[in-house]
Amino acid sequence: FFAPKFIFYATYLSEKIGYWRYITIYRHLEKNTKYRVYPLFRFFESWCQDENRHGDFFAALLKSQKPLLNTYEARLWSKFFLLSVFVTMYLNDLQRLDFYSTIGLDAKKFDIHVIRKTNQSSATVFPVIYDLDHPNFFPLLDACSQQNQILIDIEKEETLSVFKFFKKLPAILTLAWNLVQLYLIPAIETN
User: Which end of the chain has less neighbouring CB within 10 Å, N or C?
Assistant: First the structure.
């Protein structure tokens, strides 16, 4: 069971990051039609706007519940959920480089753009956002991606699970430490 506030934070961010992902792809493909390899992309704009409206609904819901945004705890949860969606997208997308190159996008540049836009949108709702210009932010994301790839590669090996676990342990600990360092990057106040 999740408290409703967690659902509100997560859904708001899911809708906003989805909007920035889809609208960025849509705009890119409108300018570069040779990469529009899937017919679905012709219908992306209305889908994008649906994501944006859903995000706006959850923003209004969050703003109507002041304790969800005006406490110290809310600041911590805001950072946690922002980091969660940023890291999840970054790690997943960097495993799908072929898809992005097929549609003419650089996955890393795409993700950095989407993270910046989502962070900027979140400044209208959350009490704090990430300092994406902090010199360690994107290098730490890259370090997380490298550790994630190590874990993926180990998982593919034909060996006993117990051996895999011990082989994965250094990467798991390094990934966890990188996430802690990302979380501890000083936030930017939005008030």
Answer: N
Q: Quote the CA–CA distance of 54 and 22 in Å, as a whole number.
A: 14
| Residue/partner pairs of 3-10 with CB below 8 Å, 24 or more apart | 5/65, 5/68, 5/77, 6/77, 6/81, 8/58, 8/61, 8/62, 8/65, 8/68, 9/62, 9/68, 9/77, 9/78, 9/81, 10/81, 10/84, 10/85
At 154, the amino acid letter reads I
Instruction: Give the separation between CA 90 and CA 72, rounded to whole angstroms.
Output: 27
Read off the pLDDT of residues 113-170 as tens digits, 9 standing for 90 and up: 999 999 999 999 999 999 999 999 999 999 999 999 999 999 999 999 999 999 999 9
> How far is residue 143's CA from residue 181's CA, in Å, rounded to a whole number?
11
- pLDDT tens-digit readout, 33-53: 999 887 777 777 888 889 999
